[in-house]
Write a structure and sequence with these properties.
The structure holds two protein chains of two kinds.
Chain A lengths: L10 E3 L1 H22 L7 H19 L3 H20 L10 H13 L10 H8 L7 E3 L1 H21 L2 H4 L2 H11 L5 H4 L4 H19 L6 H14 L1
Antiparallel strand pairs in A: 1-2
Chain B lengths: L2 H8 L3 H16 L2 H4 L22 E9 L2 E5 L1 H4 L20 H15 L4 E10 L2 E10 L3
Antiparallel strand pairs in B: 1-2, 1-3, 3-4
The chains are: A mainly alpha, B alpha+beta.
């Protein structure tokens, strides 16, 4: 019996969540490893946090007790966001990037993310245990919903005169491109307004496009193009 | 039955349906609290990417009159910033949100360059609602 992707009983390949586990562990290192370096462990608790961070993220990357490791990383990221970020210890730990990493990691822990591309799989094969690469997808669907929600609400935030008139995008260009090679191109009359309308249209499209498999072939390049600009 | 099969069986339980429904509702609707109803907190956070980036930057020109001759500078030249620092924070010392901030930037310029001159700015400042006209003229050592 087959189910649609959004059915509660839907099953599918675990390879996507396996790859996402690896990618997230690397992104988490890129974002937090500098602050979590052992040299920053000036007190016992912060040294213990650094050790726990690298132990859990390494296990997550390798897929060693993958779900437990991912859940542990999720718990650490919750502490980063609500404890250190909001608490003011590390203000940069409180932002939409930090929240998205935290939420996605926590949701990933609800998926069978250790069944593919993992040390767990390697060990199971050595023991000749069955480890099917097909499993329930509901956790993965929540990650997709998180992305769709993000694009919808950020598009809604931009759906007003200050952004659609080009004013806000022009200020963003000013901030990022002043005295840089492409500054003259961004100053072309009407460019900021046209780009603003395009950004909002793409974000609304992505909110729907990533939910519908038929639209994925359009949504993926549109998303890559959008994020190349931002 | 191995551990993985047990996990899969658990995934078909009513608990999973309850958890999926609850989380999906939260993910999709929680941003409405701050973005529609204006009530935000760390749990119900908005998705407003890039909403503060670029805010507080100036567009226009500074004119420095020294000994009767005018020198015109762009905001980045005046602030001695070849490039704005790539940090998405409203606490950067070069940002201007009104006349008081602009006066402070001009005073910093005067102190940095130890000049006795008349300095004026005519242009706009980027705020959340768009560009807003801003102008100021003052003299160093006032």
């Amino acid at each position: 019996m087959t189910h649609s992707r959004w059915s509660m009983d839907a099953v599918g390949s675990t390879r996507a969540v396996g790859l996402l586990r690896i990618a997230l562990a690397l992104i988490i290192w890129a974002r937090y490893a500098r602050e979590m370096g052992l040299y920053n462990g000036v007190e016992w608790w912060s040294l213990a946090l650094s050790i726990a961070f690298f132990a859990a993220t390494s296990a997550m990357l390798l897929g060693l007790y993958a779900r437990a490791a991912t859940a542990a990383v999720g718990a650490i990221l919750i502490y980063f966001y609500y404890g250190l970020g909001i608490g003011g210890v590390w203000p940069l730990f409180f932002g939409h990037h930090a929240y998205l990493l935290m939420a996605t990691t926590c949701l990933l822990a609800l998926t069978p993310c250790g069944r593919s591309y993992s040390f767990d799989r390697f060990r199971a094969m050595n023991r000749r245990e069955e480890l099917p690469e097909e499993a329930p997808l509901w956790g993965q669907n929540l990650i997709v919903l998180q992305m769709a929600s993000l694009y919808f609400w950020t598009a809604l935030d931009k759906s007003g005169t200050p952004f659609l008139s080009g004013d806000r995008l022009e200020a963003i260009f000013n901030w990022g491109h002043t005295n840089r090679p492409i500054e003259p191109f961004l100053a072309v009359l009407g460019f900021a307004m046209a780009a603003s309308v395009a950004v909002v249209a793409v974000e609304y499209f992505l909110a729907v496009g990533i939910l519908v498999r038929r639209l994925a072939k359009f949504a993926i390049p549109a998303g890559l193009l959008l994020h190349a600009g931002f | 039955m191995n551990a993985n099969a047990k996990t899969d069986r658990l995934a078909t339980s009513p608990f999973r349906r309850f958890m999926f429904g609850g989380l999906a509702t939260f993910i999709l609707l929680a941003p409405a609290m701050p973005q529609v109803f204006g009530y935000g907190n760390p749990i119900f956070r908005p998705w407003k990417m890039y909403s503060i980036v670029g805010m507080g930057l100036l567009r226009g020109e500074f004119t420095i009159n020294r000994n009767g001759s005018d020198e015109v500078l762009t905001p980045s030249e005046f602030l001695n910033l070849p490039r704005y620092k790539l940090a998405m924070r409203l606490t950067q010392p070069y940002l201007v949100f009104g006349e008081n901030d602009l006066r402070a930037r001009i005073e910093e310029y005067c102190a940095r360059n130890r000049v006795d001159a008349s300095i004026s700015f005519k242009g706009e400042v980027a705020l959340v609602r768009g560009w807003k006209a801003l102008s100021l003229a003052m003299r160093c050592k006032e």
